[in-house]
Specification:
- It contains eight helices and eight strands, in the order βββαββαβαβαβαααα.
- It is of the alpha/beta class and 289 residues long.
- The strands form two sheets. Strands 4-7-6-5-8 form a five-stranded mixed β-barrel, surrounded by four helices.
- Helix 2 crosses helix 6.
- It is globular.
Length: 289
């Protein structure tokens, strides 16, 4: 079943990257899935409508996001084919996309983003991801507590930039994690990234720089691993998230109560009404005069 989560009157529309599929796992548990880069990988990184994607997921009742992404490796030990659960981000985006649901409104909010991934969700995932990799038996490694550089793209790195990112402490590099993680934080959704290393970017002095063909070849080789991981992890995650309304995996719930500036006469009622789509916890019941 596909759900378009479309509301003609809402500013966070019209459409997410692809139709959102409501899928049933073998256990019968339902999850929401969509292709961030569009059906058939048809959307350039800088054109991904992250704003709409996260708003649509929130409107469907999603409470936790496990995102999958291809990444380049900035460290020798993280070889192509390896998996990683990053915990830190270096932001190298260029301000092309909206990075906040509050942009263009009269409401100001400053979400806490010191730890850009949901730490308890990442810790919970580590054991399950290792279990899935061990079950497959291909010897695929999992790396944790890594720093991912979010570059703008769509071109890959120059050698000089790739070396610089290593000197900054970067371990991985990709074109997807932001503004996705920032918007998930504002929407109070727990967010974690399972990354697949596809290449060594451009920092190795005696190797060719990365090509799109190399990336897709590694992704294809790891497709079965990613599917097994998703099937293993998501069933347990749903059970864990549903276990209690106060579940620790949902640590972001309520976080925006400390981030949104107090209501004042300077705030446009229409802006507050629009924000109710993604943050009904704070803006529901808003009426225009």
């Amino acid at each position: 079943m596909e759900q378009d989560a479309y509301d003609e009157g809402n500013r966070f529309q019209p459409f997410p990257s692809s139709p959102i599929s409501i899928c049933s796992l073998p256990s019968g548990i339902q999850i929401a899935f969509f292709a961030r880069r569009g059906t058939g990988h048809s959307i350039s990184p800088s054109a991904v409508p992250a704003w709409t994607n996260i708003a649509a997921l929130k409107s469907l009742g999603v409470r936790a996001i496990v995102a999958f992404s291809a990444v380049g490796s900035l460290q020798e030990e993280i070889s192509p084919g390896s998996f990683a659960l990053p915990t830190h981000i270096i932001d190298r985006t260029k301000g092309i996309r909206p990075v906040s649901f509050f942009e263009g409104t009269s409401i100001v909010a400053h979400a806490s983003f010191g730890d850009p991934f949901s730490g308890k969700l990442v810790s919970w995932l580590e054991e399950r991801v290792r279990k899935a990799l061990d079950q497959e038996g291909r010897g695929v490694k999992l790396f944790t507590d890594k720093c991912i550089v979010r570059m703008e793209g769509p071109q890959f790195s120059t050698r000089a930039k790739s070396i610089m990112y290593r000197q900054w402490g970067g371990d991985l590099i990709n074109m997807s994690v932001l503004p996705e993680a920032k918007l998930a934080r504002e929407a109070e959704l727990s967010y974690a990234l399972i990354a697949t290393a596809t290449d060594y970017d451009a920092w190795r002095p005696h190797s060719d720089t990365v090509t799109a063909a190399e990336v897709f070849e590694t992704l294809k080789a790891n497709a079965d691993t990613s599917r097994l991981m998703a099937a293993t992890v998501l069933d347990e995650l749903h059970a864990a998230v549903s276990a209690s309304g106060e579940n620790l995996l949902l640590e972001q719930v309520g976080s925006m109560s400390f981030s949104i500036m107090q209501r004042s006469e300077k705030q446009d009622p229409e802006h507050r009404q629009n924000l109710a789509y993604v943050l009904p916890e704070y803006f529901s019941g808003e009426q225009l005069n």
